[in-house]
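Hi R.,

Here's the chain you asked about this morning:
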Amino acid sequence: MTDPRLQRLAAALPGLRLLTDANDLEHYGRDWTRHWTPAPLAIALPGSVEEVQAIVRWANDEGVAIVPSGGRTGLSGGAVAANGELVLSLQRMNRELAFDATDRTLTVQAGMPLQALHEAAKAHGLVYPVDFASRGSCSIGGNVATNAGGIRVIRYGNTREWIAGLKVVAGNGELMELNRALVKNSSGYDLRHLMVASEGTLGVVVEVTVRLTSPPPPTRTMLLGLPTFDALMQVFAELRSRLRLEAFEFFTDRALHHVVAHGASQPLDGRHPYYVVAEFADQGEADEVAVLSAFEHCVGQGWVDDGVIAQSEAQAAQIWWLREGITESMAHLASYKNDVSVRVSAMPAFLAESIALFEREYPEFDVVWFGHIGDGNLHITIVKPEAMAKDAFMTECARVTELLAATLQRHGGSISAEHGIGLVKKPYLSSTRNVAEIAAMRGIKQALDPKGILNPGKVFDA
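And the predicted structure, written out as tokens:
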């Protein structure tokens, strides 16, 4: 460790774990985007809030930028360290701290993986209902940083709805305790919600208090094959009116192609342009009758071509893997990912326009659509053609994303639904936020991080 700045940090915090090996720099310096070459100064793995505070104060004194790091499962470049930043990984801060049975809250360190949080809640007879496929890798601190949503937003909402309190180290090293798990608190601005979706640019989340809830009723899972997206929206309306939906997810035949190529079984006879995975409450004969009636109605209307209802937990897991395995099945491919949202009511018109846009601008590209219909969130993965150079591919994707951003603006949508802005979506922020909003965001950043050391260059440029 020859850098004098790191020597001073190590001297100030002799118990701090610091990594400078080339493999560690590469591993911790990137997220799932893989578009930037990682080049961090070092990796700091603090074990306490006090060490995080000391690191931030050191960074202020030395003029070193910090990239807060959780599970690094993001897809917008929000956790990339490519310009000599110190990566501040919360990986070691992963413990359960307190459970309150009366308030139904659980306080954990920010580095706890989501899967571990689910297990901790279950041990107390309750559930933390926010869930997504990367649960084994992502951390609750990262979920807060992007306001992650996932597969059950239709029933439970995004991460934001379940955050009762936060402890955050601000850009000057001061510790802020936000909301203290109060249900009602009108004592000024709610800085807790300001930190949610801030992507580590306003503070380092070190502790999270989440609200828990009762376990859901027994559920069933069905898979449907559909002819058109318009039919998909009709099915959503029908099932939502007749059933208690826990989840309603869709994917295209191209998404299914990649998951089946990755080892999944072909689920239905024939090929269908669109597929839906729906999960619904099943508390007895009335629910059974309702789902069969809804299915028969949808088939009769020509909205559904084929379908199956899981008869066991194993079958349900196989159906869910068709949706949750999409990202993993495509991980080996060079690709560019869009994560957009519109109001559910605007989705048919937006999708018709954007599909036409992609067919026109990407005639030879493999474009994979999937997402969360119940909350208006669409994921679009564009696969790089083998013969195309990476730089040319990224340039082409940036050009088309600018057109997509303009389409979203016309439909009142957002260029980022749940993955954040980071580096990837930064050029398109103005399609979602106007000049006054961005100016206000810059002012907030200046107030909480006066020297601009926290994740600089992400969301917007200083």
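Residues 219-327 form a domain with the Alpha-Beta Plaits fold (CATH 3.30.70.2190).

Let me know if you need anything else.
M.
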